[in-house]
Design brief:
The complex is a heterodimer. Chain A is of the alpha+beta class. Chain A contains 17 helices and 26 strands. Chain A is globular. By secondary structure, chain B is mainly alpha-helical. Chain B is globular and about 85 Å long. The chains are: A alpha+beta, B mainly alpha. Chains A and B meet through α4, α7, α8, α14 and β20 of A and α2, α3, α7, α11 and α12 of B.
Chain lengths: 551, 317
Amino acid sequence: MTRTPRIPARARALAATLVVPALLLAACSSGGTTSGTSAAATTTADTADATPGGTLRFALGASPSGVDPQQVGSNVSIYIARQLADSLTDQDLTTGEIVPWLAESWEVSDDLTTFTFHLRDDVTFSDGTPLTATTVKANFDALTGELGATAPLAASYLAGYAGTTVVDEHTATVAFDAPNAQFLQATSTVSLAILSDATAAVDPNERLQGKVVGSGPFVLESYTQDQGAVVTRRDGYAWPSGLGENDGEAYLDKIQFTVVPESGVRAGGLASDQFDAVGDVLPQDVAQVEGAGGSVLTRTNPGVTFVLQPNVSAAPLDDVAVRQALNLAIDRQQLVDTVLSDAFEPATSVLASTTPGYTDLSDDLALDAAAAASLLDDAGWVAGADGIRAKDGEKLSIDVVYAPLFTGSQAVLELVQQQLRAVGIDLVLRQVTPADQQALLDSGDYDTYYYNVTRADADILRPQFASTGRNINHREADDVLDPLLADQLAAADPAKRADLVAQAQQEIVDQALAIPLFELAQSIGVAGDVHGVTFDASSRLLFHDAWIEQD
Amino acid sequence: MTTYVLRRVAAALVVLLAAFTVTFVVLYLLPSDPASIMLDAGTGGGGVDPAQAEALRDRLGLDQSPFQQYLQALGNAATGDLGTSFASGAPVATLIGQALPETARLTGFALLLAVVGGLGLASSASWTRSSRLRGLLLALPPLGVAVPTFWVGLVLLQLLSFRLPVFPAVGNQGFASLVLPAVTLAIPLSATIAQVLAQGMRAAWAAPYVETALAKGATRTRVQLRHVTRNAALPALTLLGVIVGNLLAGAVVVETVFSRQGFGRLVQSAVTSQDIPVVLGLVLVAALVFVVVNLLVDLAYPLLDPRTGPHLARKAA
């Protein structure tokens, strides 16, 4: 019916191919450059020089789905919602450690079923009401009640919720039916941000449209769907987590978020001083941003990397040898060098390198076309006249279902297609809408499923890979991976949990239940006079430290 | 005349009902499920718990049979209640009410530019005696139709917003923000209008009444304005209904490139997220606009050309 105007992916890929060498050259000549890690994740946060005041104009790459921290899931929505609300805990970006925020301290029972939070006593919401243990209970009760239907992430973090007990005014105990090792990290996420008592009772739709009251460093002034939002500084804000530099009120008077769907318009707008910062800078726009004196901040999203996840219930991917051949035939470095930019990193595990609990499996995921070919030979797949292997008259042809949510996806998959063809595997690209992708997933009518998920906790492996989860693999329950994924959720000892998670990643790669490709990165363009825009542990933006040089 | 109008109104209602029904059926034939789409968006692509999807379907009323839902939606629409958006929870009437004035401003200004541009181009080409100039002018419309709208938009932005900061690149604030999008939208339309007008004018110049007028001593300019343009305007006026449709379709592209709030952006986001109530509401409003414009065009015919009274139109209908 209607289509978003887009530069065709092929042209974009071409543009990227042309631009990337130039970028690499630039990087070499400018000396040390960091990529993909937290070192590049912040502008100069020299808060000593911070000048308060001013409005930061931010161009969002897509339309937010709303501004309720607990209900939204997309990056652009969280960029706005995160500024409005605080969470019980915060997560250190570099170490993954959970640190105090609204809760000054907490105790976790040995069996990981009860979590007691001691709240700060000086926190108020922007409507003037204080934060109490009752507020925490009201929030979690609502999320496990009717609100849960429209807050899927929060509801999944609270799975097995048995209830919250108000111990005293500032102490709340959250209990679960079963051990829940991921819950503490979950309390640091925007999905479990704490909103005012009154907000917990508001209709979910009205909350999405802006009826949310949080305790964050900014307060929502206005929100217009498909257009943007304005947030203003919260006067008297004094309870940041301490992970940032600023320990008081935000420096900026206002942040004005505008939805600008075309990437070229975002970059041009930044270069011509119509924006101070822009989201989703594409590889071909980096030169324009840097040419105008700006910089591009990048950080790898934690969670499951972009993967091809095979459906093992049908031929030919029911054969583990074929799946392993896929893993060996892909040159991940080439994906990053050729069609992405140096903001991105090749996958070295099924988890991204910024995920706490990530284990480096780069040796298992290195390119070895000869080994791939010999695995396929041994499995009886013989090369035909057209170079594609066949067995018993069946061609070695597999499809990949993907939704073009990330702009570089098609170019990446076209290159993967070439790489696989080199070892005699035919990859068929099936582009679908996000809507159809979900329907296909349910039907199981695919060979591989292409996606990624962001989460700064290794427990994300459980919903994606356990046979009792989404079961994208369409596999039977087993006695290796399923127990590993279940046990890590019950492991109270962090070292033991890390070990279980490492084993799970190894098992997934050994069985080739995922063909990891590359790590997604956020790429934010910032003008030269803007400082202190930072990422949180989930690679979402924070503006509490941000300031603009005043003339 | 009254019967004629009544008859046209009845026909318009049939068109609206048909548009509503066809859209509903098409949306239901899609294999995807709006509840899953919403939940998947809510997890940032992290996947959907079937039990949650079921709960959400109940909430949205998607658990009823399609026929029940159809009757419900139709009944509500007939009483002016377009329901609430699945994705945002905002009333559909509010969403459309916010978007429509913005798009009306954009398309209204673009239409004005297109008519002035098309008329000017065709008249100049038909009036001039220089065959070289005429050739040059007549080569412009095919070019205007052929270049992709979003490309024109990006080039205009590059030149008049990023290089020379004359107009703002995005937004709905004030007249300055309206210029570039309206020009972008007007270019293909003025080209279409110019093509149709130029053809009509060429035919008119060859007509006997032109010869008569010239023989009576009228100047070329007077003949062009008084006789040729008026006669050539009729086929162009017929096009107006189609042009309004094109304007709405073009708004989807232009509003995206220029990050403007409006009807087109709403269409794009509602279709992507399969937001059934919003899509239905948008289709109804678009069909209504289309029907009203065509009715106005039919009623305007006799004003321009006394030969086409309602009695003739009735025969044609």
